[in-house]
Amino acid sequence: MRRSVFVFIVVVLVFFSVMLGAIIGGAYAYRRMENPVMPTAVVALATEAEPQTNTIAVSSTEISTTITNVVEMVEPAVVTVVGTIPGQRTFFGFMDEQQVSGSGFIISEDGYIITNNHVIEDVDSISVVLSDGTELSTFVVGTDAFADLAVLKAEGKMPGISVLGDSDLLKPGETVVAIGSPLGDFRNSVTAGVISATGRMLDTGRGYEMENLIQTDAAINSGNSGGPLVNLAGEVVGINTLVVRGNGASSASAEGLGFAIPSSTALLISEQIIENGYFARPYLGVQVQQITPNVAERYDLPIEWGAYVGKVGDNTPASRAGLQVGDIILRIGDKEINAETQFINALFAYQPGTDVQIEVLRGSARLEMPARLIEYRLP
Length: 379
Prior knowledge:
This protein is 23% helix and 35% strand. It is of the alpha+beta class.
């Protein structure tokens, strides 16, 4: 009997122990199901796998750079020049009239515009198209074919005026911007580059050379002729005139060989054209290379400024005056060649027919030679 009671008590205790364990285990499992705890790596994967909303990020940040500011300053003064060449009878029959185009820029409120001579050469009617598309009637005031420059005058209100800078201060590597209308269709296109060199000379194929040109790698294409070459101060330092893609001696081609007329030359010529209606180009008959302090230091020259004579033409005022190759011109008349006055500026200060004294340095001796300037005429 006592053994039976003992067994009964043990069975009851085991039963209740099992039931209690089941209740506790069930409660724990239930809580785990309601608040599952997963390893960190699994949580991260689950988060990455969640579907994303289809949202495109859009920014309204306004980007402004030096070049964009320069373009905004100059663009209103840039124009597209449109001319009409009349029809003419040729060996092959009658040719219809042709439309030609180029670029230019406004230099005064009166409507004076600078462009290239070759843009308006042989045209019998001409107009300019402003940056906003307005077309203005225009006429030719005067030209200088030797420098490939022309001055036009447009009738109407001018939307902007270009400021001419000092091209004599340009240095290779300086950033510049070219603005023009390539092919006549892409009005006021902008290209950027650097000054590759200054003082370049190019044979025009017409019996004379263009002197003291600016070389740049800013893209210049057909229709850009006459447009401005601008520095980062927004000043016009050159007039885009031509591009060279080969030297003619071989089949090799080249890119980035654009050339522009210096603004200092354009200013001298345009001022005289506006005042007199024409430009009488004084001629001495020498080819020169500008001497600056850097050049003087490199070649150990005794002077800092001047014009080195590289060629003297036959039967010219220079040859008759006695100038020789190797002479350094220091002064023409009362115009001394220095940082403010280059050779071309000193020469253009006088009219053809003027008698001037030319001061030169030959070796260590300073000499003065009388010369009578003549008017240059195209061959």
